[in-house]
């Protein structure tokens, strides 16, 4: 597996790592992330065409503080994809003083929500993302709850912006409108 990567990726663009679960894992410098991922996606022998997920871990007080982890899959359906399915874990070390990574939305549209979650939960900026805003927490929430230094006791009042109940007539009308839309 790593021989294929060495054949197609520029020297110094990745560092293989032993993993306990057997999934091939490489570290990629943040500055070379987009180019490396494009090569992983577009090279016929590799063809990691599917971005499964993006996640991150906060290793406070270690520096670099964060690891952003990209899970890739090559479908292995024959033809241009090769004969067998492959997985790859790509890790990027991100310093706490400059928590940012470049967006991968130009390569995989599936990166959209995962990159927004990265920002929302850990405060890691995704440079070049077209719509970087909160996805899980309210827009006016203070801080990023996935960080290890986030306070455990939250003393923020519950905010209710809309009534939680609808009348029976509104409920029936909403169901009927949904049925009407699905018939079109």
Q: Which CATH class applies here?
A: Alpha Beta
**Arithmetic mean of pLDDT:** 86
Our count of helices gives: 4
Number of strands: 7
**Helix- and strand-based class?**
alpha/beta
Query: Which homologous superfamily in CATH is the superfamily?
Result: NADH:ubiquinone oxidoreductase Nqo5 subunit
* H and E string: HEEHEEEEHEH
CATH topology: Beta Polymerase, domain 2
Number of domains: 1
> Which residue ranges are poorly predicted, with pLDDT under 50 across at least 5 consecutive positions?
none
Round the Cα radius of gyration to an integer and report it. Answer: 21 Å
Q: Tell me the span between the first and last alpha carbons.
A: 49 Å
Give a short synopsis of this structure.
The protein contains four helices and seven strands, in the order αββαββββαβα. The chain has 184 residues and is an alpha/beta fold. Strands 1-2-5-4-3 form a five-stranded mixed beta sheet. It has a two-stranded parallel ribbon with strand order 6-7.
């Amino acid at each position: 597996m790593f021989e294929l990567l060495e054949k197609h990726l520029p020297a110094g663009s990745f560092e293989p790592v032993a993993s306990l679960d057997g999934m091939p894992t490489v570290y990629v410098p943040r500055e070379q992330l987009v180019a490396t991922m494009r090569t992983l996606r577009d090279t016929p022998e590799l063809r990691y065409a599917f971005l499964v997920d993006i996640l991150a871990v906060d290793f406070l007080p270690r520096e670099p503080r964060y690891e952003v982890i990209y899970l890739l899959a090559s479908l292995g359906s024959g033809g241009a994809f090769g004969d067998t399915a492959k997985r790859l874990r790509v890790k990027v070390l991100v310093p706490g003083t400059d928590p940012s990574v470049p967006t991968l939305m130009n390569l995989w549209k599936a990166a959209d929500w995962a990159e927004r979650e990265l920002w929302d939960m850990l405060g890691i900026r995704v440079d070049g993302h077209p719509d970087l805003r909160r996805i899980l927490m309210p827009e006016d929430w203070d801080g990023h709850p996935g960080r290890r230094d986030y306070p455990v006791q939250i003393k923020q009042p519950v905010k209710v912006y809309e009534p939680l109940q609808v009348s029976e007539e509104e409920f029936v009308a909403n169901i009927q409108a949904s049925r009407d839309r699905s018939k079109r």
